[in-house]
Amino acid sequence: MGFEEMREAGDVDTVWMDGEFVDWDDAQIHVLTHGLHYGTGVFEGVRCYDTEDGPAIFRWEEHLDRFYQSGKPYNLEVPFDREELTEATKELIRRQDLPSCYIRPIAYYGYDMLGLSPETCPEQVAIAVWPWGAYLGEDALEQGVEVTVSSWQKYSSAQIPTNAKTTGPYVNSVLASLEAKREGYTEALLLNGEGNVAEGPGENLFLVRDDEIYTPGLAEGILDGITRNTVITLAREQGYTVHDDATISRGELNTADELFFSGTAAEVTPIRKVDNVVVGEGSRGPVTEDIQKAFFDLVERRTDAHEDWFTYVDV
C-alpha cells in the first residue's frame, strides 16, 4: 500500500519536522537541500507493535543510540535530545491512533549552499510513522523468499562508514534490490570486496548448519543490526550456538541447511532459494521457525522477557 492509499484510509496525516507537527502535505523541503543532492543524512527504521498494554516501540533506545552515533562521521549533530524525539514519536502515534506502525526518524543537512562541505547548512530532523506490514510479502514469513547474489558489491568501511545508517550509501542497496526484482527475485544478497557474504540490501543474514547458527561479523562490512542483535540474544537463550563473527563464502549459501534474513522491516524471514538453488528442504526450517516464534512472542509481548526493550506509547 502506497502513502496516498494509507492517507485515504485515514491512517496517516501528520509528520513531525524540526519541533513542530505539520500536515502530511506540508512536510516539504527545498529542492536545493544539501541532503537531497549529496545523501548527507542519517536515519533509523523502528517498529512499534500492538500489545495488550498498547502500542510499544521496540528497542527505541538502541535505535536512538545509533541515530546519534551515525551522524558523527559527518559532523551532523542532531539538534534535539532523546526526550524530545521520544515524546514527538509517541505523540505522532497517539494523534494517528496507530496500534502498530513503522517509525522513520531522519536527520539531514538542509538548505543553504551546495558545496560538498555542508558546514553552513542547518541540521534538520523529521519523524514520520505509518502502518507497514510484512516487508518482503505477506506469505514470506512462512513460505520464505527467493534471493539472488547481486552483481553489485557491498562497499567497505574504508570507503564509507558501514556502522552508520546513512542515506546516501543506500543507493548501493537500491541497485541490488532493483537488479533482484528485474531478475524475478524477491530480494538480493551482497558480497563484500573479498567475495564473502555481507548482507541483504536492508537485512542481515543468518545461516544454519547442523543446528548451529552463523552470521557475518562486523569485519565483513555489515550494519550492526538491532534485530540481528535481538536474534543472536534469543537464539542463545534457546540454547543454540551462535557464531556472530562468521565468514560465509558464496558457496556456503548453496549448502546451508537453512538461511534467513533479519531486520526491522523484514523481521525474521526465511530464504527458500538462492539463485534458484533450493535451500534445505525449500521451506522454513525448524531452527528458523524456532527463532521466528521466539521473536514474535517477544515483540507481541506474549512473554515478559526483555521488558526493558520496550517503550510504551501511553506511558
From TrEMBL:
Keyword check for Transferase: yes
Domain of life, source organism: Archaea
One GO MF term attached to the UniProt entry: L-leucine-2-oxoglutarate transaminase activity
Pfam families: Aminotran_4 (PF01063)
InterPro entries: Aminotrans_IV, Aminotransferase-like, B_amino_transI, BCAT-like_C, BCAT-like_N, BCAT_family, Class-IV_PLP-Dep_Aminotrnsfr
PANTHER family per record: AMINO-ACID AMINOTRANSFERASE (PTHR42743), AMINODEOXYCHORISMATE LYASE (PTHR42743:SF11)
Protein name, per record: Branched-chain-amino-acid aminotransferase
UniProt lineage: Archaea, Methanobacteriati, Methanobacteriota, Stenosarchaea group, Halobacteria
Gene (name only): ilvE
